[in-house]
Structure to design on (661 residues):
């Protein structure tokens, strides 16, 4: 099947900056591609090129079978775009905003109104439909913006950081809407700095950095690239760390890593929860008291660090260096335990291993 | 939105085939007019939601009428007339009307500049709509605002003693000419708004050049009172032609019309200027809007 979105070697420079340095990607019809990358990686620029807002210096793009550069206006009638900043008129009501968009999609006035009401209901904005968007909360504006992108039920949608800045509850709600769209067959290109978001929504992930796609695959494939699972144990008594290593080394695929000062042992394993249970029994039998133990799989966070050498959010030197160490050995693990990919037995595991508080925070505008 | 209602109501949406509703395209001029009207409606709605803009747009010309007629009216002497303020206001109003329609430039430039800084312009650009509609819609809405301002200003002027002396039909002709000039100037405002990009700067940039334009003219004092080299500028100023034409159409001409050619053919000169300004600046503005897309 022909891809619904196809980009070949897109290049775009702004002055000295190569915002896009040969981006190629394709999204098969009915699937979701997550474009993952830090601020300034070129995610938004890619979306702007594919949605006809920006002309690339070179390269080629086809969306829904139409050449983006040759027939931009035909592409526009086949796509929906919802951006980082809610593109609604704050002095118009929700209903007026959606009706206007419908009319500009060349619907008749009556059809545009009917569709607006339908969308307002779907997005739970019916009660607020006659209030100006100025009075809406951030989450409501984002919903209105997404609704505006859905006015003509476009076969191809572009969502540029759709949940940036939303609280966890609103984010979850928006994810459900997006999942519904995908179930209905919409092809979706989604940019995000939230690894959890890509993991949950995207069939395929393209990691973008410095204007290039540096890796491509499913979340599982990308995770597999950087290694398998491991057990992490924090021993209660510093004096018993060596004993614990001896007790567990039989389960380890290779030499366990030990951090003396945090009493943390990390051992690469295979076999999952069964091995974890055995390890706990073994430690118990030897009377070694533990503070924490968990089975850890690599997260997209690790993938990202390994691939790019820096964290998704822009951090200071120290943060970046620490992240690199984590990325390589999975060793200098996050001390909060359980919130980051650890299927912890102390009941603190979050959704899919990523607590929302752990997520990269959007820091300003991407070029 | 709550989790349950989202998943609950999404079932009904599934019934609609995705992509089946992409409507047929309008083409050419019809599309441009339709889209411009949709954008104009949006701008007019905004005006009713932010009445401050309309109110302050009104206050300035009203203030000018009151200040010029009561403060300066006694001191400014119009050749061929007595110096009573009643006479000065007959002379003054055509100038104030013309100044009002040209000052609408600042509104257009600020409005466009503000639109360009907002995410909404990305929405417009991603829609299958006419590229010029955002600008045409803005200038049409400004035209409606200008018309409203002229009506209120005319009523205020009638209250302080201004009168139409040459029939309602000619007066309506004067207002039509004023609207034409105002529309032409709003395209200059659009280009300024697209070039400046910050609403604050656009307001100043939209206003600043209007002072020499409107003062180096016949609006407030007779051109013959200016130094010779400036008279030529004042005579050919599109603003002067508009003022002169309105003065005659309102029947407010005091004494004979200045013998200078552009003053003798003021209505024609004013219309020609408006057509040229509209053609040149709409072309430049639309081009600018398109290129800022790429």
């Amino acid at each position: 099947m022909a891809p619904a979105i196809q980009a070949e070697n897109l290049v775009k420079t702004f002055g000295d900056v190569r915002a896009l340095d040969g981006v190629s990607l394709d999204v098969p019809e009915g699937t979701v591609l997550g474009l993952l990358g830090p601020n300034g990686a070129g995610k938004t620029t890619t979306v702007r090129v594919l949605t006809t807002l920006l002309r690339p210096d070179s390269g080629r793009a086809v969306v829904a079978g139409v050449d983006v550069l040759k027939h931009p206006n035909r592409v526009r009638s086949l796509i929906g775009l919802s951006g980082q900043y809610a593109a609604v008129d704050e002095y118009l009501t929700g209903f007026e905003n959606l009706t206007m968009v419908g009319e500009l999609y060349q619907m008749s006035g009556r059809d545009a109104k009917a569709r607006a009401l339908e969308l307002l209901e779907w997005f739970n904005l019916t009660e607020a439909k006659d209030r100006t968007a100025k009075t809406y909360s951030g989450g409501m504006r984002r919903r209105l913006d997404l609704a505006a992108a859905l006015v003509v039920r476009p076969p191809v949608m572009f969502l540029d950081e759709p949940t940036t800045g939303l609280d966890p509850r609103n984010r979850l709600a928006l994810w459900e809407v997006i999942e519904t769209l995908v179930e209905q067959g919409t092809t979706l290109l989604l940019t995000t700095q939230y690894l959890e978001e890509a993991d949950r929504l995207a069939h395929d992930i393209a990691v973008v950095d410095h204007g290039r796609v540096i890796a491509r695959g499913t979340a599982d494939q990308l995770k597999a690239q950087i290694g398998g699972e491991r057990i992490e144990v924090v021993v209660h008594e510093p004096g018993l760390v060596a004993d614990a290593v001896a007790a567990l080394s039989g389960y380890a695929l290779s030499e366990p890593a030990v951090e003396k000062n945090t009493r943390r042992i990390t051992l690469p394993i295979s076999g999952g929860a069964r091995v974890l249970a055995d390890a706990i029994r073994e430690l118990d039998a030897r009377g070694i008291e533990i503070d924490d133990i968990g089975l850890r799989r690599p997260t997209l966070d690790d993938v990202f660090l390994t691939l790019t050498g820096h964290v998704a959010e822009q951090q200071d030197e120290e943060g970046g260096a620490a992240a690199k160490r984590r990325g390589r050995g999975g060793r200098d693990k996050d001390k909060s335990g359980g919130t980051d990919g650890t299927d912890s037995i102390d009941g603190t595991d979050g959704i899919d291993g990523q607590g929302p508080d752990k997520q990269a925070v959007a820091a300003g505008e991407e070029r | 939105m709550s989790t349950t209602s989202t998943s609950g109501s999404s079932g009904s949406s599934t019934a609609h085939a995705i992509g089946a509703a992409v409507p047929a395209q309008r083409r050419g001029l019809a599309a441009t007019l339709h889209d411009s009207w949709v954008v104009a409606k949006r701008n007019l709605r905004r005006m009713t939601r932010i009445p401050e803009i309309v109110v302050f747009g009104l206050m300035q010309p009203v203030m000018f009428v009151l200040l010029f007629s009561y403060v300066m009216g006694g001191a400014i002497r119009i050749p061929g007339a007595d110096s009573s303020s009643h006479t000065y206001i007959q002379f003054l109003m055509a100038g104030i009307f013309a100044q009002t329609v040209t000052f609408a430039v600042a509104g257009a430039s600020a409005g466009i500049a503000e639109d360009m800084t907002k995410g909404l312009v990305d929405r417009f650009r991603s829609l299958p709509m006419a590229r010029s509609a955002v600008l045409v819609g803005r200038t049409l809405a400004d035209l409606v605002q200008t018309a409203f301002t002229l009506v209120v200003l005319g009523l205020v002027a009638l209250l302080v003693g201004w009168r139409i002396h040459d029939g309602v039909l000619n007066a309506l002709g004067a207002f039509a000419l004023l609207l034409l000039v105002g529309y032409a100037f709003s395209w200059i405002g659009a280009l300024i708004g697209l070039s400046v990009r910050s609403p604050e700067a656009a307001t100043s940039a939209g206003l600043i050049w209007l002072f020499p334009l409107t003062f180096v003219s016949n609006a407030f004092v007779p051109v013959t009172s200016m130094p010779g080299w400036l008279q030529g500028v004042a005579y050919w100023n599109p603003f002067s032609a508009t003022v002169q034409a309105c003065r005659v159409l309102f029947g407010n001409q005091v004494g004979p019309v200045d013998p200078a050619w552009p003053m003798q053919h003021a209505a024609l000169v004013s219309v020609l200027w408006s057509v040229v300004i509209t053609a040149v600046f709409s072309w430049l503005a639309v081009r600018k809007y398109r290129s800022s897309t790429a």
